[in-house]
Amino acid sequence: MDNEKDILEVRNLQVDFKTYAGDVKAIRNVSFDLRKGETLAIVGESGSGKSVTTRTIMGLNATNARITNGSIMYKGEDLLKKSEKEMEGIRGQDIAEIFQDPMTSLDPTMKIGRQIAEPLMVHKGMKKEKALAQALEMMKLVGITDAENRINDYPHQFSGGMRQRIVIAIALVNYPEILIADEPTTALDVTIQAQILNLMKELQDKISTSIIFITHDLGVVAGMADRVAVMYAGKIVEYGTVDEIFYNPKHPYTWGLLSSMPTLDTKGDELPSIPGTPPDLLDPPVGDAFAARNQYALKIDTEKEPPFFKVSDTHYAATWLLHPDAPKVTPPEQIVARQKKYAEMQAALRKHQADHTTPVEEEEEQQ
Amino acid sequence: MDYENAEKILEVKHLKQYFNVGKADEVRAVDDISFDIYKGETFGLVGESGSGKTTTGRAIIHLYEPTSGEILFEGKNVDNFKSADDRRQFRQDMQMIFQDPYASLNPRMKVKDIVAEGIDINHLAKDDADRTNRVENLLETVGLNKDHSSRYPHEFSGGQRQRIGIARALAVNPKFVIADEPISALDVSIQAQVVNLMKKLQREQGLTYLFIAHDLSMVKYISDRIGVMHYGRMLEIADADEIYAHPLHDYTKSLLSAVPVPDPEFERARQEIAYDASHENDGKERHLVEIAPHHFVRAAEDEIPMYQKRAHEASLLH
Fold this sequence. Notes:
The structure holds 2 protein chains of 2 kinds.
Chain A lengths: L5 E14 L2 E14 L3 E5 L6 H9 L6 E10 L2 E2 L5 H7 L4 E4 L13 H13 L3 H14 L5 H4 L9 H13 L5 E5 L7 H18 L2 E6 L2 H7 L2 E6 L2 E7 H6 L4 H9 L48 E4 L2 E3 L15 H34 L1
Parallel strand pairs in A: 3-8, 3-9, 6-7, 7-8
Antiparallel strand pairs in A: 1-2, 1-4, 4-5, 9-10, 10-12, 11-12
Helix pairs in contact in A: 3-4, 3-6, 4-6, 6-7
Chain B lengths: L7 E12 L7 E12 L3 E5 L6 H8 L7 E6 L2 E2 L6 H10 E4 L13 H11 L6 H14 L16 H13 L5 E5 L7 H18 L2 E6 L2 H7 L2 E6 L2 E7 H6 L4 H8 L6 H6 L16 E7 L2 E6 L3 H10 L5
Parallel strand pairs in B: 3-8, 3-9, 6-7, 7-8
Antiparallel strand pairs in B: 1-2, 1-4, 4-5, 9-10, 10-12, 11-12
Helix pairs in contact in B: 3-4, 3-5, 4-5, 5-6
C-alpha cells in the first residue's frame, strides 16, 4: 500500500464488455484510492463507467465482462485475483453495496427481519435468534419506527424511504470496511433523500466505514463527499477534494456539468448545456474523449490523450489546458464566479488562521 | 409575470379526483384544488410522489373522469363538450410529453410514423409529400435530422427519444403542453439541452406549459409560476422567484430546505426544516387565500393573520 490511510487502491483498471457489435471499452485505465473513513463520490453521466467500476470491485460484473488490466488492492490483496468463493466471503462482510432502487433490491417474499439477519448468519455463522436480535437493533439504528412490531413485515408493507433504510441496515449489519452506494437516493423524494443522506453520514461516523458514493446529482455530492472523482467515457478526468472540484474545477467537462445544473439562483433564457452526446465506447475516439463536445478543445486534444496535470497535492485533472504551453482560456461565467468564491474562502481562512495563531505566539513569548 | 395582460387558458375549479370511490381503499389523489394557467406561461407543479401532481395533469387532459369539479380549457368544460368537433379540437390543442422516453414510444413503429400519428388522426396533411415534409420539419425543430425518420426508437439515446416525444406532441400544433417529469430520466448534461429546447419552442410558438416535476431547481428555472402540492391539495401558488425567495407555507419551506445545492459551503451550513402535517387534518376548513398579491396559501380563517404577518416580514405586502 502506498499510503497507510488507503483502504482500497484501484490501479490501471480496464474492463471490456464482449458484445455482438465488438468490444465495448467501458473502463479505460482507471486508478483511484479510497481512504479510511472518507466518502469518495464518483460522478458522471450514464455510460461513463461509474457503476462498472464499483461492480468490478464487488466482483459482480456480467458474464461478458473481461478485466483486461489492473489491480484492486484491499488489505494487501488483489481482489481481482480472488476466486468466486473467496469473493462471497468478502461481499456483505468487508464490502457492502446499497443499490439505487429500493423497490427491487429486497426479496419480496422474505420478512425484513430475516433479510437483515441473513448477512450475520451467512458470514458470522450466528444462530437465527441472536441474528434476529441484532437485526432488530440495526432496524432501530436506521430509524425504522416501531421496529419490534415490524420485524416480521414484508418489503411491500414499507414506503420507498423506509425500504431504503432497510437496504442500508442489511448493508451495514456486518460493519463493513467499505460501503458502495450506487445512486442510493435517486429514486426518492427530496425530503426523504435528505433523511437518508443524514442517516448515512450519522452511521458513517458511528462505524467509520469508507463510502464510495456514485451519483449524477452534484447537489448530493456537495453535501456528502470529502473527495470527488469525475468520470467521462470510461476514464477519470478530474479528481480532488470537494472544495477543489466545486470551486476550482479545471477540466472543461467538469465546467460543463457544474454550469448545466441550474441552482436556485440561475436565471436567463438559455441554460448552459454540453452539446452533443457521449462517445461510443465500442470505438473510443483518439485523444481526449471529450474533445468533440468541448468548446475549449485544442488541436492536440484530437491527437494525444492528456495525462493528469497536478493542480495541488490533492487535485489532478486530465486536460491539455493545464499544459504550460496551452493558451489561457476563460472558463464559463458560472465557474469564474465559483473560483472567485473559493479565493475569498481561502483568504478568509488564512485571515482566520492568522488571527488565531498570533495570540498563541504572544502567550508563548510571555511564558 | 405580467398579470395585467394575462389571459386565462385553463381554469381548474374545485377538482376532485378519487379512486375506488366508496370502497375501503378509497384514495383521494386530488382533493379539491383550484388554479388557473395563463396563456403563454409555464406553470410548474411540484410535490413529492403521491402528492397528486401527475393525477392533476392527467385529469386536465381528460384521461380520467373527474369525481367532481370542472376543468375549463379556453372557457369550455373538457368533461362536457357540446360537439364532437370541440372534442377533437381539444385533443389537438392539448398534448402531453411523458416521463419515460423508453416506455412512451412504440418500439414497433418508425420515428416518422410515431411523429405523424397525430397528423394522420387529425387529417392535417394534404398528401404523403406534405406528411413527410411536416415530419422532417418537426424533427429539425427538435434538433434531430430527417435521416432519423425511418429509424426505430431503440436506435436512439434517452435524450434523442425525448426529442422525438416532443416532436410528436408538437405535430398537431398544440396550444397547451403538459410535460410530466420530462427530464427526470435524462442525464444532467442532456437535461439542459431538453429544457433549452422546450423554452425555445415556447418562445417561437407561444406555447403554454404545465411542467410537472420533483426537481425543484429545474422547475424554478423553467417556470413563471409554481404550485406546491401535498396530499392531493394545493398548498401554495406564487411567482417562481417569489415562492423560492419567500415561501409562506411551512410545507414549502420544508421542501425547499431539502433541495441539495451544488455548493459544498452551502451544504455544510444547511438546516433542514421538518414539516408536521398533523395540523392539516385538524378538521378546520381550509382553502387558498390570496395573502399577498398573486401569492396564494391554503389557510384556515384563523391562520390568515399569521400568513399576512409572514408576508409583511418578507415585504410582500405594502
